[in-house]
Amino acid sequence: MRASLVNQLRVLVPIKRTIDYAVKIRVASDGKGVDTNVQHSMNPFDEIAVEEAVRLRERHKGVVDKIDVLRTALAMGADDAIHVDIPDKSLSGPLEPLAVSKILKTIIEKEEGDKIGLVILGKQAIDDDASQTGQMLAGLLNWPQATFASKVQLEGKGNEGDKVQVTREIDGGLAVVDSTIPMVITTDLRLNEPRYASLPNIMKAKKKPLKKMTVADLGLEKEIQPRLTTEKVSEPPKRKGGTKVENVDELISKLKEAGRI
Fold first, then answer.
1. Cα–Cα distances in angstroms (integers) from residue 141 to residues 38, 53, 72, 108, 224, in the given order
2. Terminal-to-terminal C-alpha distance of the chain
């Protein structure tokens, strides 16, 4: 998904289709993954990234199944979208963060005529919680990066070399990072609250450009094969119900029985 600022800075926002956050996760029958035959939606952190890209464009007076997630991003205000089709049978396992980073790097390099200056993506996906794609992409591109962003300020019109200031969430406080375009930014929860995709905007989104690509188009068939194998997935042990005690002495006795003291 892309959003543009003042027809100069182009922002690439990668989004992932994940199991909806409200769905109860169940282990698959083969014990090597989870049941994916459930409701899916846009990864919440990526939704924040889409919102931030659209807000950047608005602040700088810019022009305003798997596809359904892209359409949602378009309805939120993205200008156009790219769908990289990867048939499930073409991989020996789930698509890994390094593979995603290589795909994004190749797409960015192919857009030389209309350069992408910012990549804004969620800090992690809620299915694998890897939190690796943004950092790997910055490394592959040799671009500066700012992770866990809670505030993003762009100074200038979005030209290469213009300043970007990012406030980052860190343990015990905040850190402010100054960098220049091009740059990779990953979003944290407090960056913004994503807007609602209204029905009129959903209808308008159907007319926006949606380009389809394959891994073969990018020449990455061998590069994206998984390097890891999931041996087993299991649910955490069920917690036993608690009991009420009448007094402190009974509490101490119970704790001793449980080996806690």
1. 35, 20, 28, 9, 17
2. 55
State pLDDT tens for residues 14-39: 999 999 989 998 998 888 888 889 99
Select the CATH number that applies to the domain covering 2-233 from these four: 3.40.50.620, 3.30.1360.70, 3.30.420.40, 3.30.465.10. Answer: 3.40.50.620
Contact residues for 145 (Cβ-Cβ < 8 A; gap 6+):
134, 135, 138, 183, 184, 185, 186
CA distance linking residue 150 with residue 123, whole number of Å? 11
**C-alpha closest to that of 166 among 156, 181, 180, 153:** 153
Q: Where are the domains of the chain?
A: 2-233
CA atoms within 13 A on the CB side of 176: 4
Q: Tens digits of per-residue pLDDT, 39-96?
A: 999 999 999 999 998 888 777 765 445 577 888 899 999 999 999 988 777 777 788 9
Residue 54 and residue 203: Cα distance in Å, rounded?
18
pLDDT, tens digit, 9 for 90 and up, residues 212-233: 999 999 999 888 999 888 888 8
**Token digits of residue 34:** 């989870």
Q: E-strand spans in 109-209?
A: 116-122, 145-155, 163-170, 173-180, 183-187
